[in-house]
Amino acid sequence: MEAFDPVLLARIQFAANMSFHILFPTISIAMGWVLLFFKTRFVATGQAHWMDAYQFWVKIFALTFALGVVSGITMSFQFGTNWPGFMTTVGNVAGPLLAYEVLTAFFLEATMLGIMLFGRGRVSEGVHTLATFLVAAGTTLSAFWILALNSWMHTPAGFEMINGQAHVTSWFEVIFNPSFPYRLTHMLIASGLTVAFLLAGISAYRWLKQDRGADVKASLRTGIYIAALLIPIQIVVGDMHGLNTLQHQPAKIAAMEGIWETQRGAPAVLFGLPDATTQSNRFEIAVPKLASFYLTHDWNGEVKGIKEFGDQHPPVAPVFWAFRTMVGVGMLMLAVSWLGVWQTRGQRSIQPWLARVLVAMTFAGWVALIAGWYTTEIGRQPWLVQGVLTAAQAASKVPAPHIALTLALYLTLYLGLLSAYISVVFHLAKKAGLNDEALNTEGVANAQPTAPGAQHA
């Protein structure tokens, strides 16, 4: 076990924890706003199916929120156990930002969540709607502070180093650092897309189970239309984010594109097997000059290659393939959502084959999200804070066997929790359909004509 690099194991452990944790806030951020939409539609129209949709999805929101909180606790532990150098060096920046997230966002969410879940019928409709809004706002505010810190780690600004420690010179520059607007927007839209396909997938599952009430149809159409609207916006934001990354983290862009040599008119590598030994791509399929065009908006624009950065560049293959996974899933989302809009236009019903596709893509947003997160975080290596602190400098002296043991325990626990979460979500969908069927059966029974005189018996 000592043959394993403890820094690499610590990185894998943090990635495992973060990969699991990020799944749940990604849903809760956008789901809060979807619930607010359902609630306001009910208040505005008085149509019961909007409240039925709210009551179903608020259960999934509560489950997701709980797992997000629990999995987030382990993240803070790792700063002290595996990465003590992080807080020692940049704690003056990271500590307050994490505290702001707790004080301004988490407390708000946790307080209002109780009213949102259990207050209807005990408080006025207006107060309940306000609580739903505050929960949604709290989840977004939480993302604001976390993304401010994460963005600062990629494009640090507003600080100076004194005796090996970062000291803030401008909180405005720290928070609104060069990459923050792009990362925050990109993440919020990614959350919206994740929830859109969750809505569409679970609703399609209920539809295939013959649960075809108005609430199911409303949820299905809501998911499809949100996805169809957000995908083109995400493509534009992604392009802007890429240009910002080219300016501040060119080594990451070189790895994403699989470009080894600095060149003008750089090709877009569609497929290839990056080989770190030969510093080339095997079996490469590329479109000439296209990378220069979409990266610099000039067919002959210069793009720096990986060799330009010596040993200060990320591992190419993981970044290269994670980026293509994210883009590939995004293109699939675009095609499926637009096809869904076409099929359900007017009052048309979705076709069974497309419903099955949507069920299969219920958690497609998670795949794109994790691939995108790996692209940006592995792409920052070897830096933990770009140009300030490397992962090796921040790592603890915990022996490799100890890290490996806790990593195995984490992976086992997370696999079990993730399986349970997905099972419960589909169980709730199936149970909702059975409840609706029971109500319909009871309604039919109660509507049967009675025998003459029975009403007066």
Structural Rg:
25 Å
User: What's the number of extended β-strand segments?
Assistant: 8
Number of helices: 14
**Which strand order do you get reading across the main beta sheet?**
1-2
Question: Low-confidence parts lasting 5 or more residues at pLDDT below 50?
Answer: 441-457
Describe the structure.
The radius of gyration is 25 Å and the shape is globular. It has helices spanning 6-45, 48-81, 84-118, 125-154, 171-175, 180-208, 214-248, 250-257, 290-296, 316-343, 352-360, 364-378, 391-394, 400-446; strands spanning 159-162, 165-168, 263-264, 268-275, 280-287, 302-303, 383-385, 389-390. It has 14 helices and eight strands. By secondary structure, the protein is mainly alpha-helical. Strand 7 and strand 8 (389-390) form a beta hairpin. The model is unreliable at 441-457 (pLDDT under 50). The strands form four sheets. It has a two-stranded antiparallel ribbon with strand order 1-2. A two-stranded antiparallel ribbon has the order 3-6. It has one domain (6-262, 304-432). Helix 6 (180-208) runs antiparallel to helix 7.
